[in-house]
């Protein structure tokens, strides 16, 4: 059987498109990772991948099979290395951003796999793009992808695509320090940072879109010595303290606002409105300790239903406890009470464990001599990596 497949691969670069299309259609099934012939195809990546990349430029049906094959094969790093091609990545992103592309969602899935490979992430973060009418006037590729993700919700931008898998792309990009910088930097063309545009999707009904955005937020909140927050001299403890200032119309610090909204969304997704009302009714007479967004939760508010994503949200709060001032602000905002109530109603062990770690951080004894900025030492950095 292996020899038959090897013979079939030769037809992928046959002069006749009909022959190429038929050969590809028969090969697609073998590219699945569960196929016993998957290793054979991966081992021939140097000759197979160039043929598949060329077939991605054929008619939509043939291109569809080619992209499907690459999605399956790109779980292997050797295949990703072969796909680290500037021209191919540009073609793939055009398939995503062109408003009438019927292959946009497949291209998003492939890009999601490819951005697990660091050199491709770096290339995308550095890539430029020509302004595209109806999508983005930016000259950065990352802005085009973010705008497609935002404008494409409910198929508003492209009736053939939903762009959910771009959320996974953003999560992969922000796993790198350079990506975190890119997502909190405000873009010149609209004075908004990419993170500004993403936080509202933490409650989207699609778990892929929602989960990718939550993961992106978690990565951006990482506070290590290479954190983008250091660039702006903004630590986590700034987030709640500047909320009043950032509500003023004269505020130009869009990046600060995006971080504040991140902070608020993290907390409002941890509890149902029912538990918040009980919490405030039975334990607090003064509601002012809670942010307005929590006080005004609608009666039908539901917390994040997926336990893995709830764990990510809690881990994000845990990241906020890595500085002294961050812990002080979380205490002032009664986060301990929210986490305590959540822990009582939580059944997932991983989420319970993270909740307990947050409580330990908030209940720890503090060094009273250090009232200002407390920089993380090497041990804290190791803890940060463990959380992420």
TrEMBL record:
<feature type="domain" description="Protein HGH1 N-terminal">
    <location>
        <begin position="96"/>
        <end position="226"/>
    </location>
</feature>
<protein>
    <recommendedName>
        <fullName>Protein HGH1 homolog</fullName>
    </recommendedName>
</protein>
<dbReference type="Pfam" id="PF04063">
    <property type="entry name" value="DUF383"/>
</dbReference>
<dbReference type="Pfam" id="PF04064">
    <property type="entry name" value="DUF384"/>
</dbReference>
<dbReference type="InterPro" id="IPR039717">
    <property type="entry name" value="Hgh1"/>
</dbReference>
<feature type="region of interest" description="Disordered">
    <location>
        <begin position="367"/>
        <end position="388"/>
    </location>
</feature>
<dbReference type="InterPro" id="IPR007205">
    <property type="entry name" value="Protein_HGH1_N"/>
</dbReference>
<dbReference type="InterPro" id="IPR007206">
    <property type="entry name" value="Protein_HGH1_C"/>
</dbReference>
<comment type="similarity">
    <text>Belongs to the HGH1 family.</text>
</comment>
<dbReference type="InterPro" id="IPR016024">
    <property type="entry name" value="ARM-type_fold"/>
</dbReference>
<dbReference type="InterPro" id="IPR011989">
    <property type="entry name" value="ARM-like"/>
</dbReference>
<feature type="domain" description="Protein HGH1 C-terminal">
    <location>
        <begin position="316"/>
        <end position="369"/>
    </location>
</feature>
């Amino acid at each position: 059987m292996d020899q038959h497949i090897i013979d079939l691969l030769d037809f992928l670069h046959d002069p006749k498109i009909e022959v190429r299309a038929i050969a590809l259609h028969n090969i697609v099934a073998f590219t699945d990772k569960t196929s016993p012939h998957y290793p054979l195809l991966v081992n021939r990546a140097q000759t197979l991948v160039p043929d598949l990349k060329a077939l991605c430029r054929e008619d939509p049906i043939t291109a569809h099979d080619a992209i499907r094959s690459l999605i399956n094969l790109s779980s292997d790093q050797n295949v990703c290395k072969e796909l680290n091609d500037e021209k191919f990545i540009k073609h793939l992103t055009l398939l995503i951003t062109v408003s009438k592309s019927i292959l946009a969602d497949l291209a998003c899935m492939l890009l999601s796999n490819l951005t697990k490979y660091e050199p491709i992430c770096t290339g995308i973060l550095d890539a430029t793009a020509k302004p595209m009418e109806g999508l983005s006037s930016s000259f950065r590729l990352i802005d085009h992808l973010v705008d497609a993700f935002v404008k494409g919700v409910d198929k508003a931008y492209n009736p053939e695509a939903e762009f959910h898998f771009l959320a996974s792309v953003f999560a992969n990009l922000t796993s790198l320090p350079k990506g975190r910088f890119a997502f909190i930097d405000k873009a010149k063309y609209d004075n908004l940072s990419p993170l500004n545009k993403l936080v509202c999707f933490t409650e989207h009904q699609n778990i892929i879109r929602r989960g990718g955005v939550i993961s992106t937020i978690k990565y951006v909140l990482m506070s290590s010595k290479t954190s983008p927050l250091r660039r702006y001299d903004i630590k986590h403890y700034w987030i709640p303290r500047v909320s009043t200032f950032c509500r003023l119309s004269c505020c130009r610090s869009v990046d600060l606002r995006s971080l504040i909204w991140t902070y608020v969304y993290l907390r409002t997704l941890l509890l149902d409105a029912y538990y918040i009302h009980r919490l405030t009714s039975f334990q607090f007479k003064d509601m002012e300790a809670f942010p307005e967004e929590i006080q005004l939760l609608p009666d039908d508010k539901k917390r994040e239903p997926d336990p893995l994503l709830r764990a990510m949200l809690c881990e994000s709060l845990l990241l906020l406890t890595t500085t002294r001032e961050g812990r002080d602000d979380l205490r002032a905002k009664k986060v301990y009470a929210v986490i305590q109530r959540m822990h009582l109603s939580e059944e997932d062990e991983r989420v319970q464990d993270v909740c307990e770690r947050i409580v330990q951080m908030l209940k720890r004894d503090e060094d009273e001599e250090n009232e200002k900025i407390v920089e993380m030492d090497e041990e804290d950095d190791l803890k940060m990596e463990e959380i992420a």
